[in-house]
TrEMBL record:
This is NADH-cytochrome b5 reductase. Belongs to the flavoprotein pyridine nucleotide cytochrome reductase family. FAD binds at R131, P132, Y133, L148, K150, K156, M157, S158, T199. InterPro entries: CBR-like (IPR001834), Cbr1-like_FAD-bd_dom (IPR008333), FAD-bd_FR_type (IPR017927), Flavoprot_Pyr_Nucl_cyt_Rdtase (IPR001709), FNR_nucleotide-bd (IPR039261), OxRdtase_FAD/NAD-bd (IPR001433), Riboflavin_synthase-like_b-brl (IPR017938). Keywords: FAD, Flavoprotein, Mitochondrion, NAD, Oxidoreductase. One of its GO terms (cellular component) is mitochondrion. It is an enzyme of class 1 (oxidoreductase). Its cofactor is FAD. It catalyses: 2 Fe(III)-[cytochrome b5] + NADH = 2 Fe(II)-[cytochrome b5] + NAD(+) + H(+). It holds the Pfam family FAD_binding_6.
């Protein structure tokens, strides 16, 4: 059977990936002391109580084994590259192997940190490059996770990924919390994304549409340089055609003769038509390169806090509480 990544490679991005990552619940419950334990202990029979085979058996039945999680927020762990697929002229999909009995350990929306030893050692220590990436795999998938990575000419980490071969390993740590999404947290969610800024949006979109109890209406405005730069268009079109609560609007700076979406940089008029209006029940998410962020909402602050709201969204009367910047 042809692999998923093989189909992606042939379809040039018009593929179906899994749902966005969900929050992993804490399944390790505390030990439950059987009724009457306090009475036995106060009666001076503590040793008999704790060493009773019957009581020990009952107690063990009430303790669930902790859920196995693949990634660790405190420790760098190695994951082996399983296979790759070319999405377009400068973006690839990388699939990494995971213990099939473990959950990856992400929630919506969060990312992982990747680390690679790049460059010369200094004073006997390795020189590392660290970059965050948002997995786009289904949280229920077993045995793998997928990273969508754009390869930049001067990008140390993306160039490192581009040279990886199946069997090579990358160190991963996480999760890193972004927006903690919960079903129906807002009636309407608008999204403005550019380039690989689509990855956290896809996490949230899939979490919403796969949940029949989540009634959130989602509108995505996705801007790119050219039609060839639009990532995962086939998957986004499929989701929009399948789920009535999701709509997507495309625009490119340099359209071709056959392009059927919008043209030009994301404008005030485009956002007026595509996004839900300012409201306490509305949340606008923004993710993309610095130029897009500055134009739409303003960039995040240097300390990675949200920073003040500016740009087109402020001109349209959205407030800081209605906007989240990735």
């Amino acid at each position: 059977m042809a692999s998923l990544l093989g189909r992606i490679s042939r379809a040039a991005g018009a593929h179906r990936l899994g749902n966005a990552f969900r929050e992993i619940p804490n399944s390790h419950r505390g030990r439950r002391v059987p009724f009457g334990a306090a009475t036995v202990l106060s009666g001076g029979a503590a040793a008999l109580y704790f060493f009773s085979p019957t009581v020990a058996q009952l107690d063990s039945q009430n303790v669930e084994a902790p859920e196995k999680v693949a990634i660790d927020p405190e420790k760098w762990l190695e994951f082996k590259l399983q296979e790759t697929a070319r999405i377009n002229h400068n973006t690839n999909l990388y699939r990494f192997s995971v213990d099939p009995t473990a959950n990856l350990g992400l929630y919506v929306a969060s990312c992982v940190l990747t680390r690679a030893a790049i460059g010369e050692e200094s004073e006997g220590r390795k020189s590392f490059v660290i970059r965050p990436y948002t997995p786009i795999s289904d949280p229920d998938s077993k045995g793998y996770f997928d990273l969508l990575i754009k390869v930049y000419p001067e990008g140390k980490m993306s160039q490192h990924f581009a040279q990886l071969k199946p069997g090579d390993v990358v160190e991963v740590k996480g999760p890193i919390e972004k927006l903690r999404y919960s079903p129906n947290m807002k009636k309407k969610i608008g999204m403005v994304a550019g380039g690989t800024g689509i990855t956290p949006m896809l996490q949230i979109i899939k979490a919403i549409v796969k949940n029949p109890d989540d009634n959130t209406q989602v509108s995505l405005v996705y801007g790119n340089v050219s039609p060839d730069d639009v990532l995962l268009k086939g998957e986004l079109d499929r989701l929009a055609a399948t789920y009535p609560n999701f709509k997507v609007f495309y625009t490119v700076d340099h359209p071709t003769k056959t392009w059927r979406g919008g043209s030009g940089f994301i404008s005030k008029d485009t956002l007026l038509k595509a996004l839900p209006g300012p409201s306490e029940d509305t949340l606008i998410l923004v993710c993309g390169p610095p130029g897009l962020m500055n134009h739409i909402s303003g960039n995040m602050a240097k300390d990675r806090s949200q920073g003040p709201l500016s740009g087109v969204l402020k001109a349209l009367d959205y407030t800081e509480g209605m906007v989240f910047k990735f």
